[in-house]
Design brief:
By secondary structure, the protein is of the alpha+beta class. The longest helix is centred in the N-terminal third of the chain and has 11 residues. Strand 1, helix 2 and strand 2 form a beta-alpha-beta unit. The protein folds into 2 domains: 62 residues, HUPs (Rossmann fold); 37 residues, no CATH class. Helix 1 packs across helix 2.
């Protein structure tokens, strides 16, 4: 389905796929929440977890969160981040309520 996957190159010691799988395992991440745009990479990540004998987290892929202009929220566009909301002392429950109001997440998250 994907052909040969690049795990590392001479100029780039590791790929996104390998890095994220190892980082998640080392940090004890047990719930991976990502946008649907990353969904196709889940099978690659799961394969790497099996090969490397790493634990499988739960996966949740949400609809993309978008600006009022319709562009997806992203660091590249300097969109509001959860970190910036926390820096403003906004509580976690308020952040979750804000995200749920965008209808990208179900109520039971």
């Amino acid at each position: 389905m994907y052909g040969d996957l690049i795990i590392a190159r001479k100029e780039i010691p590791t790929s996104y796929h390998l890095s994220v799988v190892i980082d998640d395992a080392e940090q004890g991440i047990n719930l991976v929440t990502r946008g649907l745009d990353i969904y196709p990479a889940t099978s690659i990540h799961r394969l790497l977890q099996i090969v490397l004998n790493l634990p499988e987290p739960q996966w949740y892929h949400h609809n993309l969160l978008r600006e009022q202009s319709g562009e997806k929220l992203s660091k590249t566009n300097k969109s509001t981040s959860i970190k910036s909301l926390r820096d403003k002392k906004i509580r976690n429950d308020e952040i979750l309520s804000l995200i749920q109001s965008i209808e990208a997440f179900p109520d039971d998250i």
